[in-house]
């Protein structure tokens, strides 16, 4: 298994804490390295500064005797608060011919006897020397001219071991603390990640229990403000929508079966009665006529259901073509003219001089208008007038269909657009429609980006208004 796919097999909390610990380890290592470099650099500079100081003190202690020979004068102790020779191994002064003028063993050398190195007159400046016994010395060797006369070479030496020991301790503290800090941070990270992700386990458990039969169940929302809370809320909203759709589907299936059962029951019982008793030809004709009538209703219902299902299934195929609303209204009025005439209802048109145009699917909208107009004619008493009006204000256009029928009670007003909903329960499916016409009209108008609304009061007629976006004059 390659490392990338192995990494993906780990759970999120392990990955989070491991990634966190690795990042911290990298940062701490860089930090420790930088600290170590800076400290060792500063220690080195401090050593060289001390050597330089010792050499300067020694330089001031040299003078030329009246005889012309180079002499050493002990400096007054702690004259300038400097403790001479502290930490030093030794300071020595050689004459130009290489003979030793002065040697002073330093405080550090007490108890650690150190042999001064063999004098090498050619060397100059700072240098480090490794002793055979393993100790390392840092030496400053400076050539000077005393009072413009004799030359001398001053050497100051310091053991680097103590500094090295201190550096080793620092390295140990920095390096040794690092794994502990990283391990502690990793564990703390793991604990935090576990705590933070614990609700996911609960959400997973709860989500597993939600099935099509239990769509009313909801996920626990522990804190609606955090990411997991928002996730659970989003899921809960989705479950609500699913529950709604399932409920609608269930209702639709139940209503459709109910509607289909009624004509089937009628056909069956009429047939049974016809078989049980003997009839004359006219009697049989009437029985067959009733059966055909019911079969027609059955055919019409299945065709309407099919139309609705097809329409809703083909939501994406709505056309967007310019539709002249006045022409659309004229068409629908003509189409339903015969029906209105039969009922003694007059269809009056109230159209603007400049016909407004909207973008939409003409066939679909014509169907919606036909359904609404059909209802207006169907529910109007003989001699009544149905007025179809078109209005537009440039941004929106509306087609309204006003009738002088029985009106719709407030409790039914919103529901008349639901499938299979009939406002008047006494008007059964044999005399009225199936309760699908307005459902189709609502779908058609909404699919064209508009909305359909109704204004009505019992006894005062109804006004159905289809509002569509657009509507500039052509
Ligand atoms: P239906 O085929 O039964 O007419 P619709 O979906 O077209 O079904 O209408 C649903 C119900 O709304 C009708 O059963 C009727 O009670 C009520 N309704 C619709 N249009 C009108 C109207 N113009 N006047 C009074 N009631 C209406």
Which band does the percent of strand residues land in? Answer: 15-25%
Would you identify the regions where 5 or more consecutive residues have pLDDT less than 50? 78-82
* Helical segment count: 9
Please state how the strands of the largest beta sheet are arranged side by side.
4-3-7-6-5
Question: What is the topology?
Answer:
Layout: H1 3-9, H2 12-60, E1 62-64, E2 70-72, E3 88-95, E4 100-105, E5 125-130, E6 136-145, E7 151-159, H3 161-209, H4 227-276, H5 281-313, E8 321-324, H6 325-343, E9 346-350, E10 356-360, H7 362-378, E11 385-392, E12 396-402, H8 410-413, H9 437-447, E13 451-456, E14 462-469, E15 472-473
Parallel strand pairs: 9-11
Antiparallel strand pairs: 1-2, 3-4, 3-7, 5-6, 6-7, 8-10, 10-15, 11-12, 12-14, 13-14
Helix pairs in contact: 2-3, 4-5, 6-7, 7-9
Bound molecules: adenosine-5'-diphosphate.
The site of adenosine-5'-diphosphate (ADP) has 22 residues, from helix 7 and helix 9.
Report on this model:
It is a single chain. The protein has 474 residues and is of the alpha+beta class. The protein is built from nine helices and 15 strands. The protein has a five-stranded antiparallel β-sheet with strand order 4-3-7-6-5. It is rod-shaped, with a radius of gyration of 52 Å. The relative contact order is 0.07. About 1% of the residues have low confidence. The site of adenosine-5'-diphosphate (ADP) has 22 residues, from helix 7 and helix 9.
